[in-house]
Specification:
3 strands; single chain; 145 residues; 70% helix; mainly alpha; elongated; 3-stranded antiparallel β-sheet
Length: 145
């Protein structure tokens, strides 16, 4: 029951382990500046003990989602929008629908980028092969002369 109260209030359960900013940065491979930036944007909300930032399990879960979203190409605005739709007491159907719609659009963008990259790689490979043939021909002519 206390865990539900903690989730509703955003305050940790008394036994919840809190993580300091330096530990958080190491754990997720980000800089302190990145964590402060995400806090400024309202993506994570660490507790404060004086000037010390203390991160809860919820903050860790949110940071994990932020980093996944960035990795697959979502904007921070999209990530925040999807996370803000989370309702710990609901079915989250709206959140899932929005996440799926955004994911489908991003998948299409990534597939288009992949096709363009594949084409660029093929063109570059042909160009390199031609350069190698020309160099081999020049070397053979110089050896014959």
């Amino acid at each position: 029951m206390a865990d539900h109260a903690a989730a509703a209030t955003g305050k940790p359960h008394e036994t919840e382990e809190l993580t300091r900013i330096g530990e958080m940065a190491k754990l997720f491979g980000v800089t302190l500046r990145t964590l402060r930036f995400y806090e400024d944007k309202g993506l994570i909300n660490p507790q404060r003990d004086g000037s010390t930032r203390l991160y809860t399990h919820r903050d860790k879960a949110r940071l994990k989602l932020i980093l996944l979203g960035r990795k697959v190409g979502f904007s921070l605005r999209d990530v925040k929008q999807m996370m803000d739709l989370y309702d710990p007491s609901g079915s989250n159907a709206r959140q899932l629908k929005v996440a799926l719609e955004k994911s489908e659009k991003q998948m299409a963008r990534l597939q288009k980028q992949r096709a363009l990259l594949d084409e660029a790689i093929a063109d570059l490979s042909l160009s390199m092969d031609e350069a190698r043939r020309m160099l081999a021909g020049n070397t053979a002519q110089q050896s014959a002369a």
